[in-house]
User: Fold these one by one.
Assistant:
Number 1:
Amino acid sequence: MITEAPSADELRHHMTDHLVRAGCIQSMPWRRAFLNIPRHEFVPDFTVRAQGSLHRYSQGDPAWLAAAYSDVSLLTQFNQDGTATSSSTQPSLMARMLEALDVRDGDTVLEVGAGTGYNAALLCHRLGPTNVVTVDVDPELVAAARSRLRSAGYEPTLVAGDGMAGYPERAPYDRLLATCGVGRIPAPWREQLRPGGVIVANIGCGIARLVVHNDHSAGGRFLHGLATFMTARPTPDAMGATAGQLVQPLLTWSGETREITLPAVLDAPGAQFLASLLHPRVNDFAVMDDEGRQIRCLFDPASSSWARITMTEAGVMTARLDHGGPRDLWAEREPLLTQWRDAGRPGHERYGLTVDPEGVHTLWLDEPDGVTWRLPG
């Protein structure tokens, strides 16, 4: 028996119902936005990463429409090295971040990272195009997003430029949503929001919701769930070294060696969360050696400092550390992981972040005046 494939409308309703049941969509305005904005029209071609493989879909492929409405990130642009440089965010994460903005009718929103334009369309449906400004560093992405948004009936302000600088021409804003990863909250973001304004942004592998105060300081907690967006780029071709390019050098470099005891399993979500906040610009990945031992590799491109942590026995928290360069990356990271272990390995949702008027970022556990950790700039 031949069964007719579901239509785009049916798939969109199914996706939205799933997001509501999962608690990602909690309000009727956002439910209406997801029901009305056709995601597939913003992603005519994309790639999905599944089970370690990449699967490419193009408009007209039998599985393209269903894949466009699946709850996964869709990779939509790659550079010459094959590294993904733009995507359509996983809808469940997108919905949680939009809900966290807590927008009200008439609010103005600055979106950093236009991407495909789909998220901007959702904002336009909720607030109206005149209240939405979206910035992306890549002029080609901006042009494509503008065309797709216009086809959907929306014409927000789209700008090709450095999103880290915000867009002062339309400031002040009520809300700022960053769909790219940042290591620290840029000062222009805080300065371009009204007092009481909200920033929702990916910092490290956490999603922070910060409220801006009169003195342009900001503070708030991390949302449930971990996520890593593509890192914001100051220019279209400013990409750091990939893990694949670093594996061979990091496995062969020689430097100072010492034995260490690990305070935590480095792959634990909590440990990864804290490491990403402390060292947002450090490449951090694991490989296996010929003997089946895990080797954790760290590399700081700014100082060319590196560390190689080799587990010495399976199931035992002892390791050999080899490192080089002006920074001892493990000596910087170990105290924060030890503090986390001694606090009972709290979940990342118990942490919050304060950014003072000068831009100093302070991580805290449970309350801003509790256990704190000043993050390096």
Number 2:
Amino acid sequence: MLPNRMNLTRTTEDQLKKLKGYTGITPNVSARLAFFRSVESEFRYNGQETKLDGSLILDKFTWLGETSDVTELVLKMYYPELDSKQHQQAWAAHVEDGIAAIRNHRILSQFSIAL
């Protein structure tokens, strides 16, 4: 369902990299946390396409890890009418929404409490 190569917006990517600098958590792991935080907050992708211009282009298995099946099922459940490219847009929108709540944590213990 999701394409094999995926990326995010440059802004989101920068926030993930800053979070790595503060906490040591890699961008792919923090992207997974951000995605599910966004889903839990009841954010929904409105179909607005954004330019996914980040330079960190990873395969979906690196981005999603062991959560790949669950992530794809959640996207399919919430957005059954979307195609593969649009599902990537929805995933990126959820990561962007979720990272907003956790991007400013500078200490790993604070970060874990916020989750």
Number 3:
Amino acid sequence: MLLIAVFFIEAFPEEIVRGYLYSRLEVSFSPWTALLMQTVLFTLFAFLVGSLYSTEQWLFIPGFGFLLGYFRMLSGSIWFSIGFHVAMMTVTQAIGPIQKLIEVEGNFFMVRFLSFVLIPAIVSSAILHLKKSRTE
């Protein structure tokens, strides 16, 4: 149920908007500038709706937004970023302090950062770069 909720409430609508913004910005700017601009716009939106309520959120939301936009830029499709968004946020919420579906000891921010941001980002980026280099 959590996976379905994450898909329909978070990942799909956010990535549709993020993909649309990126594609509109890319018409007038370089891909990297469009990526940075959509990251700033999403961070501004998160600030305006009150989602940046802690230092952890200030570190997580802009970085995650950049990463999802980067995947969109590399893959040329929103589906890779939707899949990554769904997978990461489902697992993160499953082990989070609210759901407590899986018990995690220690610093939750570090566990989430290493397990669900840094390592998957490195692996996913490498896969996308290899895929892109083979098609060129």
Number 4:
Amino acid sequence: MNDYNRQSQEQEQLLYNHWLELVQVEQPAELISRFRTLFIEGSGYPDRSVADALEKIAASEQAEQEFKYILNRCCHILINRWQTYPNKQEAIPELIALFEEPPKILVGYSRSRGRAALPKLVNQFTESEQYLTLQRLAKVINHSNEDSNNSKTPATLALGTLIPRYPYLYKHCLLSDDSTYDQQKIIKKIQAQKQQQFEVNLSQYVAHQVRKAQTARRETSITFNRGIQNIQNPTLLTDPELFFALKQFVGKVEGADTYRQLADRFTANASTTVSYRSFKDDLYEYLISSVTDLRYGKRQFNEKLYKQLQKTFPHNDAQKFNEFLMIRTCSQLLNFLVVESPARPNHFVFIDLISNLGPTQTTGLLLKIVLICGKVKPYLEKRLAILFGHYEFSTREGVVWLVKALENVNLALTTNFGKVDVSFLL
């Protein structure tokens, strides 16, 4: 390591240590004020050694590439600490919103190269993936502290405002490539809390609706409805859409079988499959049985799906089927059915499926894949996170199809991989 790099790392560590020490002794309001003075105003910071270290970092040759990571880590030093104290969590969105204030450009105040470069570097940070993940986190934290009544979230708002509703997207939307282990732990904790709350809300609402229907049929006392009138639909689906989805995901869908039973039977048979080619043929039959619109299936989708499977690792066709091929095949299928990557965000097949089968049965198709290969569940979540990011700044009313899909996936994953059981209520 040359002297220049060593000096740069020393300045970074000085900055990190400064916030690590202060976050233990100062209140959030004081720390946010310090952040504003140091990073936004760019002058008058009381600790001259810290201000000098920041100026040297900003003046370095690596600043264009590295500053966003450094500032992101400074933010997370405070966020990680505050997240452990419920009474301090509301300061997190305040800290993140601080960077929406325009950095002050000091004219004639100093000839310091670092101080002159700071406003531009802070502005670049606000346009980075790191800051976008912080903004999403702020939405999740704010949502925890506000009434989440569905009627208070207008359809004209951006899709991105709905991120709190989908815990299965958190890992991919609230973390960036440079996220530390501590950041990952915090997001995992928030995800678990949000998921648990959704499961409680869902089971209470379903039980409430079922009891209300039974009460109405018996024409008994109205006091029941008075006692539970505040229970709200925890999804953005209508009641008919919600109950149709639940019956699909936990009820009998093909004869007397649920999706889980169909998946168990398929995996049992797959374990005795001789070749990979035979497995792909069986997988094709397993999947198309869910395409209830026979005209759509025969007209185009079935053939597309068959061709996709035939061109998936054809050099392995004669090989004995194994778990590795299962994972690779299911991953490729999700690329085909949902979206491939941020660099290639084509999702015509997904839109076509939703247009013809509807969001619930399209989700059922995806669920069938995840149920036979649980290891690709994070892969499905990543595909949906890509679509979420792609449409994040579109209005909700402009991407109703995606909102319906995200809601259905939330129900499918919750009822099949969560701890809630609503099957006995349906």
